[in-house]
Amino acid sequence: NAGVTQTPKFQVLKTGQSMTLQCAQDMNHEYMSWYRQDPGMGLRLIHYSVGAGITDQGEVPNGYNVSRSTTEDFPLRLLSAAPSQTSVYFCASRPSTGTSPLHFGNGTRLTVT
Amino acid sequence: RKEVEQDPGPFNVPEGATVAFNCTYSNSASQSFFWYRQDCRKEPKLLMSVYSSGNEDGRFTAQLNRASQYISLLIRDSKLSDSATYLCVVNALYSGAGSYQLTFGKGTKLSVIP
User: Fold this and answer.
1) Residue A85: which of A10, A22, A13 has the closest Cα?
2) How far is residue B64's CA from residue B32's CA, in Å, rounded to a whole number?
3) Cβ A90–B42 below 8 Å, yes or no?
4) Is B91 in contact with A31 (CB distance < 8 Å)?
5) DSSP H or E segment with residue A49
6) Contacts of residue B100 in chain A, CB cutoff 8 Å?
7) d(C-alpha A27, C-alpha A35), whole Å
């Protein structure tokens, strides 16, 4: 059981470049989300989805887009990378029952120069 | 007031010691509570859920005080392998979003020293 899979593990971008961080889960979880983690800031919610075709903004959505065309996949797009987006990004999922814990992917370390 | 607040530490304790972490939360409508463990440069992993009556998993004991809005984690007989950052997580229904959202504390760093 793979759980939550994120790719790539590491990425270096130049300012202004765009890219997509991939996230897939094989647990048939309805809820998926993206967090970024910065030193001293903790985990902050970027976007989330409660099911295919449904997405919503979290705490820090600016500069990021998401879509949810299937239950399994929840990609995060950086439209025009900025140095402020240098961070560790985690994808996480959980069952539709609202009180369940999250299962995290291994993370993507992104550096924007 | 921060939604979920933890003492950042670090807590430096000798092997075999007992250590306790507290966490306070501001949303009185919070429904579920968790402790996660995060090793350096790794993803957070669920350590244990926290139930109203308190619960124990081996050397770990979690407690919830809804009236005072705090949860705690007690680690007995600390091992070197317990060195990590411990994240307090609170789940609440946000009416604007129409869904449950988890809010993470910034974590408490524990170092167990030989």
Assistant:
1) A13
2) 10
3) no
4) no
5) strand A42-51
6) 98-99
7) 19
Cα–Cα distance, B2 to B53 (Å, whole number): 25
**pLDDT attached to residue B55:** 94
More confident residue, A53 or A2: A53
CB contact under 8 A, A101 and B49: yes
Interface contact flag, A43 B49, Cβ < 8 Å: no
User: Strand, coil or helix: what is B59?
Assistant: coil
- What are the pLDDT digits (tens) for B49-93? 999 889 999 999 999 999 999 999 999 999 999 999 999 999 887
B64 neighbourhood in chain A, CB within 8 Å: none
- CB distance A99–B91 less than 8 Å? yes
Closest B-chain CA to A95:
B100
CA distances from residue B30 to A2, A100, B4, B56, B66 in whole angstroms, order as listed: 30, 13, 11, 21, 9
C-alpha separations of A100 from A14, B51, B67, B80 in Å:
38, 12, 22, 29
